Amino acid sequence: MSIAAPEGQQRMSIVIVGHVDHGKSTVIGRLLADTGSLPEGKLEQVRTQCELNSKPFEYAFLLDALKDEQAQGITIDAARVFFKSDLRHYLILDAPGHIEFLKNMITGAARAEAALLVIDAQEGVQENSRRHGYMVSLLGIRQLAVVINKMDLVGWDRGVYDRIVREYGAFLDQVGIRPACFIPVSARGGDNIAERSPSLGWYEGPTVLGALDAFRSEPAPVERAFRMPVQDVYKFTKQGDDRRIVAGTIDSGSVSVGDSVMFYPSGKKSRVKSIEAFNRPVHDRAEAGWAIGFTLQEQIYIPRGEIATLESEPHPQVTTRLRVSLFWLGKEPMVKRKEYLLKLGTTRVTARVEEVLRVMDASTLDPTDQRSVVKRHDVAECVLKLDRAIACDLAQDVAATSRFVIVDDFEIRGGGIVREALADRQASVRNQVLLRNYKWEPSFIQPEHRAEKYNQKAALVLVTGSNETERKGVAKALEGKLFEDGKVVYFLGIGNVLYGVDADIERKQTNRLEHMRRLAEVANLMLDAGIILIVAAAELTQDDLEVIKTAVQPELIETVWAGDNITTDLAFDLHLPRGPVAESVDRLKAHIQDKGIIFRPW
Q1: Which of 109, 192, 296, 331 is deepest in the core (most CB within 10 A)?
Q2: 546 and 588 housed in the same domain
Q3: Are 138 and 178 members of one domain?
Q4: Where are the alpha helices (DSSP H) in 185-296?
Q5: Total structural domains in the chain?
Q6: Is residue 337 a part of any domain in this protein?
Q7: How many C-beta atoms lie closer than 10 Å to residue 103's C-beta?
């Protein structure tokens, strides 16, 4: 079936959730059958297959097409199902209800405008019913209809219906959701799915299909501020095509040729020269929902993970510290000091739990004992510390750029939304850098052209270690070796900065941040010229590195710890234990070759 709808026809995405075996797949199967949305002959094909296998026919089998899913009787992966009513076309995301597959539910719910939540009349409100309701709330879905299924198994008893309405309605009220309706149904028999049931004469509300049609279709968020996470920058070289196309999908707002765009977290700006799209007519405007690219009048370096915005509109938050609401699904608890991967839009950044503010049981909303870990199935409010600044929005401002997932050991373990961007140590430096980038006058010579000319990539190599180590000797020897190889390279001792550009400020701890900022600004100028800059400085800390990363593109920095004794918390890229300087230089040169800064000889 195609998702496409006739011109002018409304479209809506719905997520359906509920505890395992409460009948979600049967509800969807009946909707498909009763609205005539099945491919011709599909219903008869499934009935025949059931007869051949001596199995009773189930409408759920229309959805659970995979053999292993039918054998287990549960839906394992999220299914995308299309059907239509007289009013609109629907995309239903069938989210698994089994606790093991909650993370798939998150993927489905994040794209939905409204939700159906199914509860078995016999079993009543279950722990997962509450969890799913909370997660729907957390993901910002405010349109919800509760389907009370299997009413035939309780003799169409209105008392059972009323009890569930009271219990679950009170819970939803706690999480800030007011459901549009509670619909008593028997999905197997089709009662109150698309047609009213004579067995439920006491019920005066809508059918499931009527409730769906009553949901308000959310327009694409074109009226909000423009946000486009940068997926990639495509460059062309053949046949004189020198375009650099900044590509991504627009989450909100719109952009037009001639607009002044700013990118965050870098704060760089340019103006849209053209809007590009594959195999589509030429447009001078693009809006929310479009996957597009655009070229810029002033060429600037923009990496994946930046967020494109309009200069004239409110800008996103930029920080390394976030207060978040999150839910945790990992078997191992979420703990402090451990590194996790946070994915928000196209951004990928290392994150640690700085503080657990409070933890709740997602099924009861009761606060648990104060603790420093987040256990499986907990909902928590935490402060996350990131290893570099990212751009994001708050949940109440732009939902798409506030949602994140957390990856551990290559699997999604949790997710949530950004509640607040907190101040960090680098805030003052970042503000200066944003102003610098805003005022920056770019050269006509592009970084890749310098790299091609010099046969190297610009890089800042920070060589640090305790006071007694040979960091200067290693740094200078590396400079000499690279110079003999024909590289454009420069050694900078920290004293050169302290007694030069820093001569107007005292050398004391309270001024350390400003010393690091100025060092980073000197480095930024030299990197813009395509130089490999080697800096030697004693006992750099992680705080020092984060200040430097604020002013210098983090991907251009390599950190090296020289010596046996590691005396700070610096997260370095290479450790050079004490040994002959020549051996250390060979290892360091091999490292920057591996990183593609200089190229290995053929």
Answers
A1: 192
A2: yes
A3: yes
A4: 208-214
A5: 4
A6: yes
A7: 18
Q: Is residue 578 part of a domain?
A: yes
| DSSP result, 281-344 | --BSEEETT-EEEEEESS-----TT-EEEETTSPPPEEEEEEEEEEEE--SSPB-BT--EEEEE
Residue whose tokens read 């590194």: 339
353 and 403 fall within a common domain: yes
In Å, the largest CA–CA distance within the chain is: 91
User: Residue 268 in 3-state DSSP?
Assistant: strand
Domain identity same for 55 and 194: yes
Q: Could you list the residue range(s) of the whole structural domain that residue 253 is in?
A: 228-310
SS3 139: coil
Please determine, for residue 145, whether its predicted confidence score (pLDDT) is greater than 50.
yes
| Neighbouring C-alpha atoms within 13 Å toward the C-beta of 95 | 30
**Residue 88, both tokens:** 């609109």
CATH number at residue 398: 2.40.30.10
pLDDT at residue number 221: 75
| Domain end (from 214, 240, 267) | 214
Does residue 467 belong to any structural domain of this protein?
yes
Q: Is residue 139 part of a domain?
A: yes
Question: What digits encode the pLDDT tens for the residues 535-552?
Answer: 999 999 999 999 999 999
Q: What pTM did the predictor assign?
A: 0.72
Same domain (yes/no): 235, 209: no
| Spatial CB neighbours of 599, under 8 Å, sequence gap ≥ 6 | 455, 456, 593
Angle between helices 512-528 and 542-551 (to 10 degrees): 40
pLDDT for 590 beyond 80: yes
Q: How far is CA 333 from CA 364, 372, 407, 414, 585, in A?
A: 19, 10, 13, 11, 42
- Can you tell me the distance from the alpha carbon of 561 to that of 355, in angstroms, rounded to the nearest whole number? 29
**Pair 545, 462: CB distance under 8 Å:** yes
Residue 106 vs residue 303, higher pLDDT: 303
| Joined tokens for residue 333 | 């608890």
Query: What pLDDT does residue 168 have?
Result: 94
pLDDT in tens, 49-91: 666 666 666 655 556 543 333 444 444 344 567 778 888 888 8
C-alpha gyration radius of the chain? 29
